[in-house]
TrEMBL record:
InterPro entries with a match to the protein in the record: Glyco_trans_2-like, Nucleotide-diphossugar_trans
Glycosyltransferase 2-like domain boundaries: 4-116
Molecular functions (GO terms): hexosyltransferase activity
Species: Hyunsoonleella aquatilis
Name of this chain's protein: Glycosyltransferase
Listed Gene3D superfamilies: Spore Coat Polysaccharide Biosynthesis Protein SpsA, Chain A
Superkingdom of origin: Bacteria
């Protein structure tokens, strides 16, 4: 088996069919790859959609379980995989048609441990056509640390990488953040700290579907409260990885350490956004911020200046870093948010 495609699924009946269709329409013999879906206790008809595809496609496998959360599900998928390479994709996303044959050929010919590619955000479900051809002649092979040091805002999700399974097993890499939708991020950082042979392609292979009801767009208050503490757990984990690399005292890790601190700050920034939507008292917010201060995650020092995504982000970061001013403006801002006078990008 050459490739295992891993899909954790929960209540995505509107999207899982499109995801599977894109994975079937590939330039790889069905006998050479498997599509493994774990239904994590869906309450809609997601499993029925998958079963309808199983009837007509021999390489799709469906496993069902009581709701265990994304981390447990992702690790079980790793255990079930039998392919030489693995690729994990969210059940509401999809990929360009007829691309995996070339990607796998590059993995084989260049003896890669990890292969990366680009993605686009979209609300469309029919962007199947592949754009520019892959330039297989001018592929640069580098270490994961080298890539992370020079790339501008490299992607931290597993959806953008095909990984050699033996490399994962040998290095005992699994998803660690318990029941956390952002468990991909530390997994990817820890993976890249070990990778010796990596290539990143500029080609847009993955389609990141913007779903109104997805975790990143859900504005339910209880959901946001849970999300705050999951974000905080992610920040702690990123800081732990950064500390571990700093203890090695190797200059080669400096770029990755800087990137870890950058993404730590990005997640603190998103925490502040959620403080504006959720009715958490100032004393409780202050306690969270003190905990972040204890691990040098606040104030944000690495999501500033030209490192910010935009001028707006830079100005907002300065505001969030001024704790006294933020607390002074918190309740008026919450009112503006409720009245939809102020709208925030929710990630």
């Amino acid at each position: 088996m050459l490739l295992s495609i891993l899909i954790p699924m929960y209540n995505t009946e509107k999207y899982i069919g499109n995801c599977l269709e894109s994975l079937i329409q590939q330039d790889v013999d069905p006998k050479d790859y498997e599509i493994i879906v774990i239904d994590d206790g869906s309450t809609d008809n997601s499993a029925s959609v998958v079963q309808s595809y199983i009837k007509k496609t021999e390489n799709i496998k469906l496993h069902r379980q009581s709701n265990a959360g994304i981390t447990v599900t992702s690790n079980r998928l790793l255990e079930l995989a039998t392919g030489k390479y693995i690729y994990k994709i969210d059940s509401d996303d999809y990929v360009a048609h007829h691309t995996f044959g070339t990607l796998l050929r590059i993995m084989e010919e260049r003896n890669l441990e990890v292969l990366g590619f680009d993605s686009c955000e979209t609300e469309q479900l029919d962007l199947y056509q592949f754009g520019d051809e892959i330039d297989v002649e001018n592929i640069e092979v580098q270490t994961g640390v080298e890539y992370w040091a020079q790339a501008k805002n490299p992607r931290s999700g597993a959806n953008w990488y095909i990984v050699n399974r033996e490399f994962l097993v040998k290095n005992n890499r699994t998803f660690e953040l318990e029941d956390n939708p952002m468990c991909d991020t530390p997994f990817t950082f820890q993976l890249f700290a070990l990778v010796e042979r990596f290539t990143n392609l500029p080609n847009v292979i993955h389609r990141y579907v913007q779903v109104p009801s997805s975790g990143s767009n859900n504005r339910n208050v209880n959901h946001l409260k849970r999300r705050i503490f999951k974000r905080k757990a992610l920040v702690y984990k990123l800081r732990d990885i950064s500390d571990e690399l700093e203890e090695k005292r190797r200059p080669r890790f400096s770029g990755m350490i800087e990137s870890l601190k950058f993404w730590s700050d990005v997640n603190v920034y998103f925490l502040f956004q959620k403080f504006l939507y959720v009715n958490i008292s100032i004393p409780k917010i202050n306690l969270i911020l003190k905990e972040l201060e204890d691990v040098d995650a606040y104030p944000m020092e690495n999501f500033t200046g030209d490192k910010c995504f935009s001028k707006r982000h830079e100005l907002t970061t300065k505001f969030f870093n001024n704790k006294s001013l933020f607390f002074l403006m918190l309740y008026p801002l919450r009112l503006l948010v409720r009245l939809k006078i102020v709208e925030l990008n929710f990630r």
